[in-house]
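Researcher: Dear colleague, please comment on this protein.
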Amino acid sequence: MVAAITVVGIGPGSPDYIIPAARRAIADSDVVVGGKRALDTLVEGPQKRVFITADLAALEREIRAVPPTQKITVLVSGDPGYYSLLQWLRRTFPEENIEVIPGLSSIQVAFSRIAESWYDATLLSFHGRVPEEKELVYQKGKKLAFLTDAQHNPAYIAQVLLAHGWPAESRAVAMERISYEDEKRLDTTLDACAQSEGFFHSVLVVMG
C-alpha cells in the first residue's frame, strides 16, 4: 500500500495567497514534499521534508517508503491542475490515493492585477514547451496568457507574436515575482515588449 497523498496548490508564492484548506493539509501531514523555498516558507512543524529535484525516480522511492498509516502532502506552485507534478503523480500512484486541493494560478493573479477577465483568454505556455502555430496567430479581440522561462521570455514571445501578425500596438503586460513584495510589472505595447529585458520566469498577457 501507498500512503495517502494530498496535492496542494500553494498559489503564486506568497503565503497570503494560500487557501485555509491547503494550510490545514500541510499542518496535518507527516511528510511534506516540495521545492526548498516552499518548504522553508510553509512548513513550521516537525514534518519530514522531502525536496523535489529533477530525479523523479528518487522521489518515487521516497514516497513509496512512507508508511501507509502516514499522510503525505505535495506542494506545487500555482494550481495543481495547470502544468504541475499532478500528472506524474497520477501516472505513478493509484488515483484513489490522491486528493487535490486547488490553488491560485499565477495567470489568475496576473489578470486580477490588471482588472481583466480571463474566461475568454487562451492559456499557453512557453515554459519548457512551445505552443502550436495556430494558437499564436492574431485575431481581433484575442487574449493570450503565457507562462515564460529563461529562454522564452516576454521579449522573445512578443517577437514571435509580431511575426504571427499581431499589431505592434497590442497591449502586452509582463509580470514577475507575482504576489511578492518585489513584484515587477511592465505594461506596454507588444512592439516595446519585444525590446524589453528580464522577466524570465513570469506571466505575459497580450490583448489584441
Summary: The helical segments are 20-28, 36-42, 56-64, 86-92, 106-113, 133-136, 154-163, 190-193.
